[in-house]
């Protein structure tokens, strides 16, 4: 008897894993693998995090998967901003199965590129000023194929491929109210998201703060914090006026600075928001507590929690 490819893959990956998920964050200078595991009480634990600097990270993944014994563990991948372009476009008035093809024409016109690219989109949670808009992500086909081949070659089931703006929303699945997040993770630019009930309502990149980690506290107070507050306020105004949503009252930070506590105090004095660090609610082993954890890899891996909720 000869199994078809679909049946073979289903049989191969149908075994139960001892782990919850694997998250992979693909950045320009490194690729991060992490493993999440669920304790008997339901809490999520970071079992391992490994950073690979080699651009040919697929070989390292195969070796790492054997060493960690993560066979059959679902993999969730997230690209950093270096690997994709993002657009907000009018949703084409075509049948659902034709939307991606129609959007591809628009993206090709905007990028003026002959490179073959993979296109995907998500609907906005609310209409934008009465218009039906979608968020579109475009990734080089070559990069997508490398991910698929690397994960399958490592003997692992590929669950999803996403981008960092989307996967970091997984830290806020239980927040009923809108939250602004400011995240620096693998990219020097600050990624500003507005998230409500785990859904991404608004996202933009804040330029001019790439060297935030090098500033002293006095330098931060000499205009840097004021400039950051202006950008936050503009995003809050857009959320209220254009998306017609209630004011945002919470701000969560994951920024590359040693002066996070002072930064929180300064922002709270300037804006009508409650500010705190962005929690990940994941238990860290002792050997990782003092290290910089990749929130993109963690957020990707937390997609398994969302998948579990959908299946219930």
Indicate the topology:
Blueprint: H1 5-12, E1 21-26, E2 31-38, E3 44-52, H2 57-68, E4 75-79, E5 84-90, H3 99-111, E6 117-123, E7 133-140, H4 141-153, E8 158-163, H5 164-167, E9 179-183, E10 190-196, E11 199-206, H6 217-241, E12 250-254, H7 260-270, E13 274-277, H8 295-301, H9 303-311
Parallel strand pairs: 1-4, 4-8, 9-12, 12-13
Antiparallel strand pairs: 1-2, 2-3, 5-7, 6-7, 9-10, 10-11
Explain this structure to me?
The structure is a single chain. This protein starts with a helix and ends with a helix. It has helices at residues 5-12, 57-68, 99-111, 141-153, 164-167, 217-241, 260-270, 295-301, 303-311; strands at residues 21-26, 31-38, 44-52, 75-79, 84-90, 117-123, 133-140, 158-163, 179-183, 190-196, 199-206, 250-254, 274-277. It folds into 3 domains: 5-80 and 143-167 and 283-311, Nucleotidyltransferase, domain 5, CATH 3.30.420; 83-140; 173-277, Nucleotidyltransferase, domain 5. The strands form 3 sheets. The protein has a 5-stranded mixed sheet. The protein has a 5-stranded mixed sheet with strand order 11-10-9-12-13, with helices on one face. The protein has a 3-stranded antiparallel sheet with strand order 5-7-6. Helix 2 runs parallel beside helix 4 and helix 6 packs across helix 7. It is α/β, with parallel strands linked by helices. The protein contains 9 helices and 13 strands. Helix content is 33%, strand content 27%.
